Fold this protein.
Amino acid sequence: MRTKYCITLLAVAILYCGPIVNAQTYGGGDGTATSPYIINTATQLTELSTQVNGGETYSGKYFVIGADINWDATSTFTPIGKSTTINFSGTLDGAGHTINGLLLNGERYVGLFGVIGQGGTVKNLKITNPNFTATNSYGGVIAGMINTGGLIDGVIVTGATYVSTNGSYKG
């Protein structure tokens, strides 16, 4: 009986708390403005995409890029956010770092961020040598779409290769 009670209690705690994100998921930090989650690697950047696309918007949470990141150009990056309701609503500060060689390829909401939601901010970041292909609507190297109240500030893209077919709202 005690085992059943503990398992039920654990299940309720997991459902109540939502996804478990800690400093070990990223390179440190607790997601606050004074101690943002730190992204140092391509793996940690991919984890952010996985968490957001799983439904965690990170509204009110903060991230900082802690080092330059080189993407394996043979592996397509899954955008962070995939619809107007599944999006990134936190703050990501690139801190002047560079993400190099992103391979962005898809149909809709293609970009480093598929969708930046209300209150979402991406700033102080450099993207170099991205390879960008969008076969339908809503695509851009930084974001496929920005909802009302989202912001991109101080972001530089250089050396981009663009392939675009059909659709609209790309750049």
